[in-house]
Amino acid sequence: MPTFGAHAFIWVGDWTSETGGEAIAAAARAGVDLLEIPMLRPERFDAALTKAQLDEHGLGAICSLVLPREAHLPEHPEEALRFLRLALDQVEAVGATFLGGVLFAHLGYLTGVPPTPAERETCAEILREVARYAGDKGITLGLEPVNRYETYLFNTIADTLALIDAIGADNVTIHADTYHMNIEEPGFRGPIEAARGRLGCIHCSESDRGVPGQGNVHWDEVFEGLRAIAYEGPLVLESFAAINPDLAGATCMWRTPSYSSDELAREGMAFLRERAAAVGMA
Ligand code: MN
Q: Is 238 an active-site residue?
């Protein structure tokens, strides 16, 4: 049976000791199993406080991040390695066992040319080190392919499966996202089936990053694919109703949404639960 989660940026625009507590309380109100915590500034993350707040609300957590510009992996491999190790220390400290997201790139950074073989090789080499460090802590990594406007490195599930093969560690998985898939993949079911046994997490995001079920994502195909591979990982509602200043530029979120954070969470989670149940997943 899959678990249901929600990204903290549905409710708060940044993760601080204060807003983190607000996001945890809101996620608990929304009745989700787990909260996705953005680990964008691991050096400032208060793991002990967050863990206590999660425990208080009986909420689980997964973590995700995108690399800062100065740690864009192909250009600054040593800095990326340092940053990812620090993030993993915090993931462990908060009691989570999954770190997903764009672990190889700074979001929104494009070179204007395709990735070179050397760049991809550097990604595999460093992420092999990171996977070893994560494995020692019992943490699984999820690599999230994102669309061509946000990165030039890994845009599709097939691309990212090739990266995972090159890394060669069994605690590295695909972190899929239906928003990006809607732009980059030829459909939904095929790519999800291609990730059979290696899908660690899926962001269930609508084509406009709004309320799932109200856009252009082919949800029937998504859930048929998930059922076909007997997916049991998290189904995470990711949207940015609260606009994070760091992500707004990279994700080009310029308009204020027409719905509130709680409406998005309520309607979105109800839709995902209903679709999961309809295919016999939950
Ligand atoms: Mn995502």
A: yes
